[in-house]
Amino acid sequence: MHVAIPLYPRFTALDVAGPYTVLSMVPGCTVTLVAADRGPVADDFGTFLLAATASYEEVPAPDVIMVPGGTGTLDVLSDEALVNWIRQAHEHTRWTTSVCTGSLLLGAAGLLEGLPATSHWALLDLLKQYGAEPVSTRVVHTGKIVTAAGVSAGIDMALTLVGKAVDEETAQSVQLAIEYDPEPPFTAGSLQTAPEGIPDRALHLLTQTP
Q1: Does the residue 200 lie in any domain?
Q2: What pLDDT is stored for residue 24 in this prediction?
Q3: What is the predicted pLDDT for the residue at 129?
Q4: Which residue ranges does the record assign to the DJ-1/PfpI domain (predicted)?
Q5: CB 48 within 8 A of CB 71
Q6: pTM strictly above 0.90
Q7: Which residues are catalytic?
Q8: CATH number of the structural domain spanning residue 175
Q9: Domain that holds residue 74
């Protein structure tokens, strides 16, 4: 199983690193980071660099695409090279997936029309402009499209994908291998549980990234 993860300026590091780690541990699975051109791409903060080892043209038909989100997502919705690659690769995929605002790029590629999908809570309603039905759940699976909510939900999505693409025992083995057993110190991880005032402070943090 060949997984391709596209990188673009100001992607969110955990959107990539979480699913990358999960999927790379699956026997027989190869993960390739792709971009318009080979070379390093900087994350939201401009200091964490990941290197694309292949261009879009070099990976036209992966088995899986996993589109990350980031503060740069809105800027690349009009990036024809990226959006066209997503659209064309989708024709060949077994699974087309996204994390966080990466679902907006699936929408821009015309893949979410009439489908339920999720994204980061701060931009969830933007999915409507692509004809999608915004859903406030951790992972949404419809046909061969799997979307995940914000950032850390990418790990949930990747484990869900392994369970469906391979088997649950493999997914459980990976989960244990990475010791993914969340016990967050606070109950502020969703809009439903966050204390008063925390959503505004969270939005402020999101707008402070470079």
Answers
A1: no
A2: 98
A3: 97
A4: 2-162
A5: no
A6: yes
A7: 100
A8: 3.40.50.880
A9: 2-183
Name the CA dihedral angle for 117, 71, 65, 146, rounded to a multiple of 10 degrees: -20
Q: Residues 124, 111, 80, 56: is their CA dihedral positive or negative?
A: positive
SS3 of residue 154 by DSSP: helix
Count: domains in the chain? 1
CB 41, CB 8: distance < 8 Å: yes
Does 204 fall in a domain?
Answer: no
CA 130 – CA 63 distance, rounded (Å): 24
CA distance linking residue 158 with residue 138, whole number of Å: 12
CA angle 87, 53, 37 (to 5 degrees): 60
Contacts of 115 (CB under 8 A, 6+ apart): 132, 133, 142, 143, 145
**What whole-number distance in Å separates Cα of residue 165 and Cα of residue 144?**
10
139 within a domain of the structure (yes/no): yes
Alpha-carbon distance of 148 to 27, in angstroms, equals: 23
Rounded to 10 degrees, the C-alpha dihedral 63/161/23/67 comes to 70
Please give the DSSP secondary-structure letter assigned to residue 29: -
The predicted-structure confidence for 48-63, as pLDDT tens digits, reads as follows: 999 999 999 999 999 9
**Residue 191: inside a domain, yes or no?**
no
